[in-house]
Every structure is written in C-alpha cells, then in structure tokens.
Amino acid sequence: MRGRQTNQDQREKLLLAGRIAKEARDRGIMLSEPGVRVLDVVDQVEELIRKMGGQPAFPVNIGIDAVAAHYTPATGDSQRFPPRGILKFDVGVHVDGYIADTAASKDLGGSNNLLVSCSQSALEQAIETVKAGISLRYLGGVIERTIQSSGYRPVTNLMGHSIERYNLHAGFSVPNVSDISDGTVPDDIVIAIEPFATSGKGFVVSGRIGNIFSLVRRKKLDDASLNQFQEVIDERYSTLPFAERWLGEFGNRTHLLRKLLRLGILHGYQTLIEASGAPVSQWEHTLIVSREGVVATSK
Ligand code: MN
Ligand code: MN
Question: At which positions is a divalent metal cation 2 bound (predicted)?
Fold first, then answer.
C-alpha cells in the first residue's frame, strides 16, 4: 500500500482522480448559490464523481463563514445556502485508492472578496515555490506573508498534508505559517497544500461531530447487525471518511453509528470552527512532488 507514488500506473490514477476532483469542485462552486439546497448540490457533485469513474474519497465538505472544515449535510437536511457568506467547497476523489483533495471558496451574494482571493493567491504562490527539498519554514512563510499582505491571518492549526493510497492524511504536514516545522518537503511525495485565511484569531476549535465518520479498526462483536455494518463500511470505504447519508439502506444507521463510535471502532469528525467566529476562506490543490518537478493534479 505504501511506498513510491509515482510509477506510471499509479501516476495515471492520481492524475485521473485530480481531473475528476477539479470538475467536481468547479461544478459545486457553480451550483452553490444563495437559496439553493446544500444537500442537492452535494448529491449532484458526488454523483458526478461516480459517473466520471471515481469515488468520493470523503463526503463533500461544505463550510460556511466560520465553519472551516468537516461539515457535510445529513440525510434529509433542508439547509439552504445563505444570502451572504464565505463558502468553502472541499472535494475528495479516489481512483483505486489514489486520491485528489481540492477546495475552492466563493463569496455568496457578493463578488471579488479579498478574503477569498488572498488564500487563492497564497496557494498559487506556494505551488510556484514548492519543490523537493524546500524548507517548510520558507514555504509556510510564503503562504503566511501572502495572506498577511491582504490584511488577513492564516489559520495556524489547519495544514496541508501528505497523501498515500487510501490514506488522506498520511503523516507529513505542510504548515501555512513559517514557524511550525523545521522539516523539508521530501522527494517523491503526494501532498495537498491548503491555505486557510481569516479575519479572526487565526486558529480553529472543535465543534460537534458533523455527520462524517471513518473506520478506526474492526472488532468482532456479539451482535450480527453491528458486525455486518462494520463489514460494509470496511469494504466500501476502507479507512477513508464516509457520510451517514451514504448508508441509507440501513434504517437504523444512526443507532449503529452511535454504538460503533462509543466502542472506538469509528472515529467521528468534529466540525472545525474559527475561534472568534470570524469567516474563513480556503483553497487547496493536490500535487505530485518529485525531483522531475511538480504536477498539480487538481488544477
Ligand atoms: Mn486536505
Ligand atoms: Mn480538502
């Protein structure tokens, strides 16, 4: 499962996942307008991913204003996009476990918002700068200064990350500020870079569990329905994040999910919210970094 990411077959799957993720993200941003039902957009985008030959690598994440990450609608969610607000639309796609993770932001009911554009510029600057061997202090500094030059703050406790097969957060972090890590970007790695900018304090705190879960480890239990539920989750999603609404055929899924959470078999993702309640913007691309150069798969 682990190891070099860049043999030809693996590279083609990474590139295909990236192309699908780009389409899905752009469609999502286009469809997300004030008054439109959030769940309708999310359903359409996840359907598009499957139609194009991928699978969602995680449920579409919708973050509005201070909600920075880890929210997805539940079954039957009637929430609509508000008349005004900063939307983050974060999409993951995998092809045979090879993942692309990408996000964009949009100023609902407005246009040309500096908060939206400064994290986009920071991402573009970071992609120009990144290469195998570069210092994370330097790379993080580029992101930090780009955001600060527009008068905003980077979110310090949200970071980019390495990606491996069926592993969205594979252990290596790419900070959005200069003073978090002394490391360097390794050769032959897949990373997501994701600057977050805010007018608030510049860090996020955890909120409630937001309809997104992942399998930690299966356990044989004295309950056939719980065992079958674990098996379905394992076969469909492996350890990748999944949504409650993807398990619609289990009428008692809320109960099953709660039980498996309590037993530590599942992890529940808490929504991440800007500490002062201020709006947050985010842009993200997935990159293959090697001595031969950098390819942004989702661009
Ligand atoms: Mn990411
Ligand atoms: Mn993402």
Answer: 101, 161, 194, 284
Counting ligands in written order, the one closest to the CA of 170 is: 1
Check if 161 is active-site: yes
- Which residues share a beta bridge with 105? 88
Domain count, the chain: 2
Binding residue per annotation — 101?
yes
Instruction: Show the domain range for 169.
Output: 7-207+273-296
CATH number of the domain residue 244 falls in: 1.10.10.10
Residue that the structure tokens 């790379």 belong to: 139
Residues 6+ apart with CB under 8 A from 129: 138, 139, 142
- 10 Å CB burial of residue 224 (0-12, 13-18, 19+) is exposed
Q: Decide if 101 is catalytic.
A: yes
State pLDDT tens for residues 219-242: 999 999 999 999 999 999 999 999
pTM for the predicted model, two decimal places: 0.96
- Which is nearest to 55 in space by CA: 25, 82, 21? 21
